[in-house]
């Protein structure tokens, strides 16, 4: 028997490893977002394509810049920044000026992520931080909606898209009138409901033949992406379910009380950014709690707050602020909802 | 049958690593030859080291006691082979520090037929006599804990034990030694259970086996006596089902409170290998001188379940089973909780259930670069103790070890490795926790 010679490696147990990695999770979130992006480009045309490219590229460049400034290795390859870029574009109006979108992307990465220390340390969802910034900075552009399915959407960009940097957005009313046959008021289903008590039928909300932010229009496609992620265990299904539950809990009593003034729960769920937020933003792992009870509290809080803002606030949409507030209190929720450990839950 | 599929007995959380048991679970137990030199550590159990009964130069017969127990929390050692004691000296051990060991030169010409015997009539033994006989056999938890078995047979008087649980889960990937013992020695196992039942004075005994070993469940069911005192139950195949707290929860629905022993909920848990050895050895009054070790893993040429004399250098065992040219990491125990060894000159001890050899660049063990915690919560959903490994990991990274223990139950972590196994950021959580525990121990020592 020959003398056995092997060099042994020393490692700490466990010596087996499940192969799901952070970049893999991020990649799959991007996969789930792609159909949403595709639908958005189909509905609103090349303007949205330019918007997606602008935010994603700006996010990546900003990430590279901030990594460099802080002397860290570049973290572009982990994929999280691509998600931020795509999500940000999907929350903006289709004809949002590209230079403003770039500002939003830069703020999202700088203020929302890099300032806190990068991936894993950000308190709030970076895309929403960027979105909130431009909501305050460019109130007109962020509420200028263009209708879907305009005949010229693949040959022409929406005029406001190419607004020169640091200029006010180019008005789009005239261009829209040229394009569409019907009269378009420029109102989203949420605005129609709030100010004119017109309820958009739910099949339109589900499939996305409505006006709105680039990626929020088709609840169905967003849900499918969510189901894909949940099935792969790369998204906590309790979060979107909790948000929807929270939204129904608040909206149902009001609707039962006065159906002419208050929207029905189905409308609440399918309209605006609720579905996009519930599936892709509330589920941002970094900014959500990890304790089982905390997850439910966090999700219900966001769902309920969204509806409260919508029904009683001055804004038509409340999902962005609800999520940002949820993000802010998430560490606190985690802290006070530590699980009872094994053996503490049962009286012997 | 369908009902049992939906009503699988189990605990919450845990992980499902690939099992790799097919490498060895069909291979019968084979005897390993004797190495020319055996190294018998005087401390291969929890508790005080044994006291040598022999002197260098003395000849010993296989099975003869060569070291005595030092008090109740200790066990004796027996000669694993006929030969001559060369010396008693410090030798490397798998756990790190050198330990006093008897070096035994084995007479290769001897047939090694076991000669030493001190037969008992097991039917007339009183409970205390059984406990004494178990101690005299040098019996320790063969599942890996190495806690002296007879001590567990004397639970604290304030705890009333009503159930004996035989742990046949073997939830570690690769390991199949308990599986083979259950298949090949069901008679010994039941004999051992009856003896321990008598010593503990409990009527009820349950054998818990993961449902990936249905053949073992059947084999044992055929040997069960008709009096219904012993039953066999399949539990869900899930890691760490074989942790005693988890198994008690799965079988009986009882949760052992944090920091307490199973006897607090009226249960005593013994590994099936331990019980089978009790059943086999006690009638003859013999001691533990060999054990079944699963040698497996991608780096092993001839995986198998080997009956190995205690004290065999693992180098000898590896040479016998053969390793591939790429072999790179040798783990004693299973891959989830076992430890990789630095030197191959350490001996097989009573509690060593397996040896797993990995090759270089093995995708199953390859860890990517460590990334920041993204609070995905995978570890929270994996931890069988319902701790918050994510929070513990963040605190460990910040060096706040005392808070980990005071606010986040660090000391209830039994290092099963489920959190590290699932972590997509490749954070070595278990390693963090071990460091934290030992720093806290040092701090506590300084304080006193």
Topology readout:
The complex is a heterodimer of chains A (348) and B (448).
Chain A (H helix, E strand, L loop, with lengths): L21 H23 L1 H24 L10 H11 L7 H15 L13 H12 L35 H7 L9 H8 L5 H6 L11 H13 L6 H20 L7 H6 L3 H8 L10 H21 L6 H18 L12
Helix pairs in contact in A: 1-2, 1-3, 1-9, 2-3, 2-4, 3-4, 3-5, 4-5, 5-14, 9-12, 10-12, 10-13, 13-14
Chain B lengths: L1 H5 L22 E3 L5 E5 L9 E2 L6 E2 L4 E4 L8 E2 L4 E11 L2 E11 L20 H10 L12 H4 L10 E6 L8 H8 L1 H15 L3 E7 L3 H10 L6 E6 L8 H9 L14 E5 H10 L8 E7 L7 E6 L4 H8 L5 E6 L6 E2 L13 E6 L18 H5 L6 H9 L3 H7 L10 H5 L6 H19 L1
Parallel strand pairs in B: 1-14, 9-10, 9-12, 10-11, 13-17
Antiparallel strand pairs in B: 2-8, 3-5, 4-7, 5-6, 7-8, 13-14, 15-16, 15-17
Helix pairs in contact in B: 2-5, 4-6, 5-8, 11-14, 12-14
What does this structure look like?
The complex is a heterodimer of chains A (348) and B (448). Chain A has 14 helices and no strands. Chain A has 348 residues and is mainly alpha-helical. Chain A has one domain (22-331). In chain A, helix 2 (46-69) runs parallel beside helix 4 and helix 5 packs across helix 14 (319-336). The longest helix of chain A has 24 residues, at 46-69. Chain A is globular and about 85 Å long. Chain B has 14 helices and 17 strands. Chain B is of the alpha/beta class and 448 residues long. The longest helix of chain B has 19 residues, at 429-447. The interface between A and B is large, with 48 and 74 residues.
Biggest sheet strand order of chain B reads: 1-14-13-17-15-16
Summarize the helix and strand pattern of chain A as letters.
HHHHHHHHHHHHHH
Under CATH at level 1, the class of the domain at 2-26 and 118-284 in chain B stands as Alpha Beta
Low-confidence stretches of chain B: none
Gyration radius of chain B, to the nearest Å? 22 Å
Number of strands of chain A: 0
CATH architectural type of the domain at 2-26 and 118-284 in chain B: 3-Layer(aba) Sandwich
| SS class of chain A | mainly alpha
Please give the count of helices of chain B.
14
For the largest beta-sheet of chain A, the strand count, sense and barrel status come to: none
């Amino acid at each position: 028997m020959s003398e056995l010679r092997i060099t042994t490696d020393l490692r700490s147990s466990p010596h087996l490893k499940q192969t799901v990695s952070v970049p893999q999770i991020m990649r799959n979130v991007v996969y789930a977002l792609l159909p949403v992006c595709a639908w958005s480009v189909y509905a609103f045309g090349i303007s949205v394509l330019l918007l997606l490219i602008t935010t994603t590229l700006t996010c990546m460049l900003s990430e590279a810049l901030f990594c460099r400034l802080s002397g860290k290795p570049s973290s572009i390859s982990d994929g999280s920044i691509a998600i931020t870029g795509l999500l940000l574009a999907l929350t903006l109006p289709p004809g949002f000026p590209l230079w403003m979108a770039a500002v939003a992307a830069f703020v999202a990465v700088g203020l929302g992520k890099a300032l806190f220390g990068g991936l894993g340390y950000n308190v709030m969802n970076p895309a929403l931080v960027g979105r909130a910034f431009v909501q305050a900075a460019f109130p007109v552009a962020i509420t200028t909606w263009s209708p879907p399915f305009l005949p010229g959407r693949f040959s022409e960009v929406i005029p406001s898209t190419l607004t020169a940097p640091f200029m006010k957005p180019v008005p789009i009313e005239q261009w829209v009138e040229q394009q569409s046959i019907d009269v378009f008021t420029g109102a989203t289903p949420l605005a129609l409901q709030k100010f004119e008590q017109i309820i958009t039928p739910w099949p339109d909300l589900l499939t996305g033949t409505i006006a709105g932010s680039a990626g929020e229009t088709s609840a169905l496609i967003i849900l499918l992406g969510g189901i894909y992620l949940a099935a792969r265990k790369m998204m906590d299904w309790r979060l979107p379910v909790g948000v929807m539950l929270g939204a129904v809990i608040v909206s149902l009593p009001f609707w039962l009380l006065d159906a002419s003034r208050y929207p029905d729960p189905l409308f609440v769920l399918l309209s605006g950014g609720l579905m996009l937020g519930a599936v892709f933003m509330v589920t941002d792992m970094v900014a959500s709690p990890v304790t089982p009870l905390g997850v439910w509290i966090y999700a219900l809080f966001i769902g309920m707050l969204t509806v409260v803002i919508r029904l009683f606030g001055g804004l038509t949409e409340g999902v962005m602020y609800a999520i940002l507030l949820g993000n802010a209190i998430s560490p606190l929720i985690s802290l006070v909802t530590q699980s009872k450990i094994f053996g503490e839950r049962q009286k012997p | 049958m369908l009902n049992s599929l939906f009503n699988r007995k189990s605990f919450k959380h845990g992980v499902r690593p690939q099992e790799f048991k097919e490498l060895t679970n069909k291979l019968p137990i084979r005897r390993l030859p004797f190495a020319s030199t055996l190294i018998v550590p005087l401390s291969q159990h929890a508790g005080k080291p044994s006291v040598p009964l022999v002197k260098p130069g003395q000849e010993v017969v296989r099975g003869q006691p060569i070291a005595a127990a030092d008090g109740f929390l200790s066990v004796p050692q027996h000669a694993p082979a006929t030969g001559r004691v060369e010396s008693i000296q410090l030798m490397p051990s798998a756990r790190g520090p050198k330990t006093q060991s008897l070096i035994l030169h084995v007479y290769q010409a001897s047939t090694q037929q076991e000669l030493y015997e001190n037969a008992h009539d097991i039917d007339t033994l009183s409970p205390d006599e059984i406990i004494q006989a178990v101690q005299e056999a040098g019996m320790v938890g063969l599942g890996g804990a190495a806690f002296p078995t007879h001590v567990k047979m004397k639970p604290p008087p304030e705890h009333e034990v009503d159930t004996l649980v035989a742990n046949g889960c073997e939830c570690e990937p690769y390991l199949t030694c308990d599986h083979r013992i259950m298949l090949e020695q069901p008679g010994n196992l039941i004999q051992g259970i009856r003896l321990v039942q008598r010593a503990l004075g409990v009527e009820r005994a349950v054998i818990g086996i993961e449902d990936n070993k249905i053949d073992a469940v059947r084999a044992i069911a055929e040997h069960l006596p008709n009096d219904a005192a012993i039953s066999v139950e399949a539990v869900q195949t899930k890691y760490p089902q074989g942790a005693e707290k988890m198994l008690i929860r799965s079988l009986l629905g009882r949760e052992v409170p944090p920091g307490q022993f199973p006897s607090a909920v009226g249960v005593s848990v013994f590994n099936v290998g331990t019980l089978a050895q009790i059943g086999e050895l006690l009638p003859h009054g013999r001691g533990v001188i060999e054990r079944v070790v699963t040698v497996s893993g991608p780096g092993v040429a001839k995986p198998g379940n080997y009956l190995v004399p205690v004290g065999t250098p693992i180098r000898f065992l590896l040479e016998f089973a053969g390793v591939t040219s790429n072999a790179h990491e040798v783990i004693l125990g299973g891959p989830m909780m076992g430890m990789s060894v630095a030197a191959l000159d350490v001996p097989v001890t009573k509690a060593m259930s397996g040896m797993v050899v990995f090759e270089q660049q093995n995708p199953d063990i390859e860890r990517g670069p460590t990334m920041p915690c993204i609070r995905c919560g995978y570890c929270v959903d994996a931890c069988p103790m319902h701790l918050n490994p994510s929070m513990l990991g963040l605190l460990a990274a910040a060096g706040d070890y005392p808070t980990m223990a005071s606010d986040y139950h660090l000391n209830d972590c039994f290092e099963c490795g489920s959190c590290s196994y699932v972590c997509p950021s490749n954070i070595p959580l278990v390693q963090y926790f071990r460091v934290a525990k030992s720093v806290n121990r040092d701090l506590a020592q300084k304080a006193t």
